[in-house]
Amino acid sequence: MAQHLNGVAPGSTATLTKPALELKDIDASYGTTAVLRKVSLKVEPAAVTALIGPNGAGKTTSLRVASGLMKPTGGTVLLDGEDITSTGPARRAKRGMCHVPEGRGIYRNLTVKENLLMQANELSAQESIELATSVFPRLGERLSQKAGTLSGGEQQMLALSAAYVASPRLVLVDEPSLGLAPIIVDVVFEFLETLRDKGVALLLVDQYALRTLSIADQAYVLRRGEVVYGGDAKTLLEGNMFEQYIGEAS
Ligand SMILES: Nc1ncnc2c1ncn2[C@@H]1O[C@H](COP(=O)(O)OP(=O)(O)OP(=O)(O)O)[C@@H](O)[C@H]1O
Ligand SMILES: [Mg+2]
C-alpha cells in the first residue's frame, strides 16, 4: 500500500512502516527514585503490544511517559517517527493518542452522556452516543445516570468508549480488567481486539498476562524498571519462557 511505504524503495529490506509509538532509552523518576531505566519499546500500527511485569515494575509509569502525563528525565518519545518528548498530553491526544488510565479516568459526577460528550472530539453528542452504544449497548440504558453510580464493569466500558468515540490511532490501556467479573473481562478483551482490527495501535497493560499475550503481537516484559524481554508475544508462551520471565516474578 503506497501510503505505508514512507518513501522506501520496493524490495528494500528497510522497515516499511514507522511504529505508531516508540519509547527510546527512557529514564523516569519520582523525586530521586529512578523507576525506569533505558526503557525502549515500539508499538506498531494495527497490532497489540503487551507490556507485562510484576507490581511496581514501571508499567503505569511507562504509559504515563508515553501519553505525556509524566516527563522523562532522559530518552525520547516518538509518535509516527516524530519526536514529541516535549509536548503535553492534550497535544498528544489531538494527534491521535488516547490514554485509558488505571482506575478508569471518567468524570464520576457527570452523567454517561456528558462523559461521552467530553470524549467526543469533533463529533456531535448524537454521533458519540451512537458510536459508544454500538460497542457497549449497556451504556445506552444508562445515559442520564451519573458515572460514579455505574457498576465497575459499566464504568470500564465508559472509560474504554473514549478509545472508540475519539477515533484515536494509538490507544494506551492500563489494567482494563482490574476488579471486573470474568464475563465483563471477556467484553473488554473483545473490544480491544475490535480496536486492533480497525487499525488502532494498542499498548496494553493487564493483570491477566497469559490472556494479554494471547491477543498480543509483540510483548515487552519489564522488571524493576528495565526491559528484560522484547519480541514476539507468542514466543513468551512457548517452553519455559513464561515461567522464566513472568511466572516466577508475578
Ligand atoms: N506517584 C508516585 N510517587 C512515588 N513513587 C511512585 C509513584 N507512582 C509509582 N511509584 C513507584 O514507581 C514504581 C513503578 O510504579 P508503577 O505504578 O509504574 O508500576 P506498575 O508496573 O504499574 O505496577 P502495578 O502492577 O502495581 O500497577 C513503583 O516502585 C512505585 O512504588
Ligand atoms: Mg500499574
Structure report:
Mean pLDDT is 90; it is low at 1-14. This protein has helices at residues 59-67, 89-94, 112-119, 125-135, 137-140, 152-165, 182-197, 209-215, 241-247, and strands at 21-30, 33-43, 48-52, 74-79, 82-83, 97-100, 170-174, 201-205, 218-223, 226-232. It is 33% helix and 24% strand. Strands 6-7-8-3-9-10 form a six-stranded mixed β-sheet, sandwiched between helices. It is α/β, with parallel strands linked by helices and 250 residues long. Helix 3 packs across helix 4 (125-135), helix 3 (112-119) packs parallel to helix 6 and helix 4 crosses helix 6 (152-165). The protein has two domains: 16-96 and 168-250, P-loop containing nucleotide triphosphate hydrolases (Rossmann fold, 3-Layer(aba) Sandwich), CATH 3.40.50; 107-166. The structure holds adenosine-5'-triphosphate and magnesium ion (MG). Adenosine-5'-triphosphate is lined by residues 30, 33, 35, 53, 55-61.
